[in-house]
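G., before I forget:
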Amino acid sequence: MDHQLVVYNTLSRKKENFEPINSPFVGMYVCGPTVYGDGHLGHARPAITFDIIFRYLQFLDYKVRYVRNITDVGHLENDADEGEDKISKKARLDQLEPMEIAQYYSDRYHENMDQLNCLKPSIEPRASGHIIEQIEMIKKIIEVGLGYEVDGSVYFDVIKYSKTHEYGKLSGRVLEDLLSNTRDLDGQSEKRNPTDFALWKKAQPEHIMRWPSPWSDGFPGWHLECSAMSTKYLGEQFDIHGGGMDLLFPHHECEIAQSTACNGKESVKYWLHNNMITINGQKMGKSLGNFITLSDFFSGENKLLEQAYSPMTIRFFILQAHYRSTLDFSNEALQSAEKGLKRLMTAMDTIVNLKSSETSTSNIKELEKKCYDAMNDDFNSPILIAHLFEGVRIINSVNDGKESITAEDLTLLKKLFNDFAISILGLKNESLKNNNDLPDKLMEVILNLRQTAKTNKDYATSDKIRDELKNINIVIKDTKDGAVWSEEN
RNA sequence: GGUUUCUUGGCCGAGCGGCUAGGCACCGGUCUGCAAAACCGUCUACUCCGGUUCGAAUCCGGAAGAAACCUCCA
């Protein structure tokens, strides 16, 4: 089957046919978290967005190398020289080694990602493990004359770069505007121009995270790691670079400048950006302090939450909106997502026992095509989900005997749900049926019923329960502390 | 202030010039010991004002409102 996938490229602001540089191989780099705090709902968005992109590309038989970094080198909180970085600050406050902070929060992040059923990236490089690569990159940039050193720090010369390249092409910014519109310069910058950005920063005495370099003991600038690590693992040119829209400027713009300066050519073919999750119409973010952590969602322990929401509810909620649209958080929206997901999952249980007939009242082939079309149109998961609900309607109608389906169509329908709901959208049934605790929980109910019967001296019933369980090799033994059960072979 | 984007029914959320998006909620019905589920049906839309067009939620112009980025943020 030949499916033309179309993706929206931020660089061209258009949908483009997806054609890998070196098919069937696809390289995808996504900006990961800075690990100095618990992951919140906003972090789930890119993770899930690029998870379904990863899943779908693999489903289309591409060989995908998916790289998502962990930023464990603290970025400066502000551009002033005496700025402290986020990880160091947290470490100082908690009296821990910065790497303890980074380790703790990356573990938490991974746990959340597993809960959300996000596949692990192929490579998850850490910035701190690639200091050498970053230093080499700075050397190259200085070599080509686009980096300059001032007192142990190295900056990228944006003005000079823009003479031969278009700085601002990704975010649609014009350098002159940037220069005239930059906010207050916070004084004492060593930079030649306010638009220049740091490649290497000399560490102040109190700065704990530091590495040696030809220029000073310090740390790499905050855009450099992505350029260095994407080049290392995906090559000088690769297919997809993803991340949140808030990273568009300056982060990704600077990445382009660095990589281009270094490699002499554009490195990324398709730039993909997910939109923000909002709360009361405003972006949910760390700096605004209006975020709700993923763990809070799963436990329900947050003032803003009326109840707990399972990881799959969160996943489904996010997938019900297109990744390039903002998505507004509310309890009402999450509750309807929860119900919708349940309906979908119930139908997937129903389909297993569905009976086929001579004829079909629905066109499953066409439904399948619509599902492919939805995903091929820039990963339109909400449309895909709408089509899956059409499938749900069919399943329920057939189950009710109001519609019919042939054996062939039934097989196709099962495959459709398996492919699109499970493999591509990465949904999974969280119901008890797929829960390992189920036997224990069921036996508890049965043993309680039997105990009630015994208390009522209804020994016929209590014996019947014991005998019938014995028939399926479950043995009940009455002990002083109550009944226990075990499996006999 | 600059750049970019958005404004759809009770809520969420698709839509890219003509065809019911979908989910949740509501209402009516079928089914039902009760409850739930399921099924059928119904009802609420395209911020406003102009224009292009046989025809616009969809294209163009204007107005109002909102957001993101311009500083770390997914």
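The CA atoms of residues 313 and 338 of chain A lie 5 Å apart. DSSP finds 16 helices and 15 strands in chain A.

More on Monday.
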